[in-house]
Amino acid sequence: MTEKKIEQALVIAVKTQGGICWKFVSPGTAGVPDRIILMPMGRIAFVEVKAPGERPRKLQLARHRLLRRLGFKTFVLDNIDDIQKIIKEVMPDEAS
């Protein structure tokens, strides 16, 4: 499974649950997560997508810690089977 296929599956799964999953780009700020999940009721999360077994770089981990300190859910996704777990954490009452 490639990173691209995992990312595509995430986008489809979020859309199926009524949300959007934009590619997140922040010019001038390296290390930001790949995707931002925007769900109904103002629920937001960030997702770093990796190929199976890959780990985030140190700068990416620092950005994740910053986002979490600010109160945002932030995930690393390297397995297509974890997509529904992420959606359930973002939308615990709505995800099936």
What does this structure look like?
By secondary structure, this protein is of the alpha+beta class. It is globular. It has a 4-stranded mixed sheet with strand order 1-2-3-4, sandwiched between helices. The protein is 35% helix and 22% strand.
- What global shape is seen? globular
Into which percentage range does the β-strand content fall? 15-25%
State the separation between the terminal residues, measured CA to CA: 24 Å
Q: Strand sequence of the main sheet, in spatial order? A: 1-2-3-4
Q: Provide the domain count.
A: 1
pLDDT averaged over residues: 95
Spans of at least 5 consecutive residues with low confidence? none
Order of helices and strands: HEEEHEH
Helix % is 25-40%
Query: What is the radius of gyration computed over CA atoms, rounded to a whole number of angstroms?
Result: 13 Å
DSSP summary, beta strand count:
4
Alpha plus pi helix count: 3
What is the CATH domain class? Alpha Beta
Key phrases:
96 residues; alpha+beta; Trna Endonuclease, Chain: A, domain 1; 4-stranded mixed beta sheet; 3 helices; 4 strands; globular
Task: Please summarize what this structure is.
The chain has 96 residues and is of the alpha+beta class. It is 35% helix and 22% strand.
